[in-house]
Design a protein that fits this description.
Layout (H helix, E strand, L loop, with lengths): L7 E8 H10 L2 E4 L2 H16 L3 E9 L9 H16 L3 E4 L1 E4 L5 E4 L1 H14 L4 E5 L6 H9 L3 E6 L6 H6 L2 E4 H6 L6 E3 L9
Parallel strand pairs: 1-3, 1-7, 3-4, 7-8, 8-9
Antiparallel strand pairs: 2-10, 5-6
Helix pairs in contact: 4-5
Length: about 200
C-alpha cells in the first residue's frame, strides 16, 4: 500500500561487478552518465509508488591496488569514482587484492552492501533496489523485508539469479530501464546492442 502524503525514502544499490556482467549480457558497455541510469530506476519507482520520493544512489566497487597496476589504470578508476561522487552518488569501496594466479579479487563489497540493505530498512526506507544477481544478499533482503521495506532487484530477462528472484518483492526489468534512457547516454559494448521485449 502506498503511504498517502508521506515523503517516501528509497535507495538504489549497484554492485558494479555484477551489474557490468548483466549490462554486457544485454550489449551495454556502460553509461556516459551513471546518474541518468539511477534516475531512470528512480523514475520507475516514482511512477509506480509515488512522486514524493527522495532516493539515495549507492555504488559499490573497488580500486586496483596502487603501485601494483599501471598508474593510468589506477588513475582512470579513481577519476571514475570521483565523477560518480560529483554527480551525488555515494561510492562505497571494498578492497582489491591480487591472487596467486595474478588475477584481481574484490573483497568486502558483498558485506558492505548487505549491511547497507539491512541498515536502510532499520532507517525505514520504504523501497530498496538492488542491481545484482548475487544470492549472497538474500539474508539481508529477507531481514529488510521483515523491517517493512519493499525490496526490488534489477535483472536482465535472461539472468538466472534463482535465489534472488525468489526473495525480492519486485523484479525490475533491466532492458526496460535501458530502453527508457536517452540512447546518447548508453555506451554499446563491442557486440551489437539490441533491447528486445
Amino acid at each position: 500500500m502506498r503511504p498517502v502524503g508521506k515523503r517516501l525514502k528509497s535507495a538504489i544499490l549497484i554492485d558494479e561487478s555484477n551489474a557490468m556482467h548483466q549490462l554486457h549480457d544485454v550489449g551495454v558497455g556502460g553509461f556516459r552518465s551513471w546518474k541518468k541510469f539511477y534516475q531512470s530506476i528512480e523514475q520507475y519507482l516514482k511512477s509506480n509508488y509515488g512522486q514524493k520520493m527522495v532516493t539515495d544512489f549507492n555504488f559499490y566497487g573497488t580500486l586496483p591496488p596502487k603501485g601494483h597496476v599501471e598508474d593510468a589504470k589506477y588513475n582512470s578508476r579513481y577519476k571514475f569514482f570521483e565523477a560518480l561522487q560529483y554527480d551525488g552518488i555515494n561510492v562505497l569501496r571494498g578492497e582489491c587484492y591480487f591472487q596467486d594466479d595474478g588475477s584481481l579479487k574484490e573483497k568486502q563489497l558483498d558485506v558492505l552492501m548487505a549491511l547497507d540493505i539491512y541498515e536502510l530498512s532499520v532507517y525505514k526506507y520504504e523501497y530498496i533496489v538492488v542491481f545484482s544477481g548475487d544470492a549472497d544478499f538474500v539474508p539481508a533482503i529477507e531481514r529488510a523485508q521483515k523491517n517493512g521495506s519493499t525490496v526490488f532487484a534489477v535483472l536482465g530477462k535472461n539472468k538466472s539469479a534463482f535465489h534472488l528472484k525468489n526473495s525480492v518483492d519486485v523484479i525490475i526489468n533491466l532492458e526496460s530501464i535501458i530502453q527508457d534512457m536517452d540512447k546518447k547516454t548508453v555506451i554499446p559494448s563491442k557486440t551489437t546492442w539490441k533491447v528486445s521485449n
